């Protein structure tokens, strides 16, 4: 009995000894894992998890030790207050690398807490204010509102030849930001902005706003907001006999939009998303195949960017030969990482030096790319 016990203890010590040789790196994820935007939060988390699993399957070595990555995921509910609680929890758990938050309204306040704790952040949140805060370890791994909103306006003016448009925004940091950028560029491109209406990110009835805009004979309505609102908006436009196109940013460029909107979402809906067309990117097809094999579904809007962000951290750790966040930050800020969704090289603010934008429409309920520029 005693021999058996000794053998068990030795086996346990051997196992923990081997484990002790590894350096554990915690990657934090903050996003909406519950509520109406949970489909985006889970898709983003899946992208990050895929990268973590790949890194652990073929471990990389830093400072003579193998790295073992762990993903710690927190539900920030797309809410600033919950986002601050999620940030504190990740910081308390010893996380020095975060992917997210997804929503601008969460990312802006939470980034202050992360910055003070010396945590590096890679976020797809698009509001320009995020990177205007001047935090050294903050990277936007996506186009900003100014690019998403303005390129959608340019497409509407140059390709669709529209003259008379309107704007609706949901008053969130994201919705407001992208709508203002669209409006600014629309006017500069010679279009008339016949109206700017407001709603919120919990609303589902837009009849009165749409009826008001119908009288102005607008050719398109740009909506600054998210798919759970944009889909019923598209349905109500159809019911009211409004033939105007529905335009939006990256948050409506999702399969959820087609699912919720049904036959009201087709080539009448156009949206702009950061990054080049994934199918045309060198690693795009391989990433999509890996993602589908692992999760039994297609990657949505930002799964590839979250995957890239984790891989970018890992590559920078190798180059720095350290898991110290400050050393890793110096490598990322000075260098360039070639990912699936783009080349990640950042300016002094933490914005991507080059971030192409792709314009999508919908076919069979799925976002379908038209052109990148």
Automatic annotation (TrEMBL):
The residue stretches assigned to a coiled coil in this entry are: none
Pfam families membership? Peripla_BP_6 (PF13458)
Protein name per the record: ABC transporter substrate-binding protein
| Start and end residues of each Leucine-binding protein domain | 25-365
Q: Does the keyword Signal apply?
A: yes
Q: Signal sequence: where? A: 1-20
Q: What keywords would UniProt list here?
A: Signal
The record's listing under InterPro entries reads:
Leu-bd, Peripla_BP_I
Species per Swiss-Prot/TrEMBL record: Duganella guangzhouensis
Q: Could you confirm whether the keyword Ligase appears in this record?
A: no
- Entry's family note: Belongs to the leucine-binding protein family.
